[in-house]
Specification:
Elements (H helix, E strand, L loop, with lengths): L11 H17 L6 H8 L3 H7 L5
Helix pairs in contact: 1-2
């Protein structure tokens, strides 16, 4: 089930983003990975990424 984080439930897209970014960052380093790659591999839109995360921090 996917829901927004507003109700305290983490969305499926956010989970995919975190898992994908963690794997790629661990393998290649945070500075060598671009947003486009994370979006593509997590299979989410850029708008979804920015809705959940304003920056790499």
């Amino acid at each position: 089930m996917s829901r927004s984080t507003e109700g305290g439930v983490v969305s499926e897209a956010r989970t995919r983003l975190l898992n994908t970014a963690t794997q790629i960052f661990y393998a290649e380093g945070i500075h060598s990975v671009g947003i486009d790659r994370i979006v593509a591999e997590a299979q989410v839109t850029r708008a979804t990424l920015y809705r959940h995360f304003a920056s790499k921090e």
